[in-house]
Amino acid sequence: MVTELNDADFKSTLESATTPILVDFSATWCAPCKALAPTIDKVADDYTGKISVYKVDIDQAQDTAASFGIMSVPTCIFFRDGKEVDRFMGNVDLNTVKGHVDRVLA
Hints:
Elements: E1 3-5, H1 7-16, E2 21-26, H2 31-46, E3 52-57, H3 62-67, E4 75-80, E5 83-89, H4 94-105
Parallel strand pairs: 1-3, 2-3
Antiparallel strand pairs: 2-4, 4-5
């Protein structure tokens, strides 16, 4: 299950996390973001309990997007213990995303 975060709840969600987090920074007008969404949903299902998956609409959470230097979407950032540990940009395939997740969980 992918939950949407905004500027108001992003920081508290990050700080209270008990598992690593994947955040998909996207926008409603972004075609590659829409193409990546089913892949992110599949990762959320496949890694339930191991990694928490969220999305942030950069138009609705501009402060959060700016604080992580999001210049293009989709950009996915992985966090562990509140710190960024990995990121990738663009619409990538499921195996590529799972490779990132597996490295973050290792």
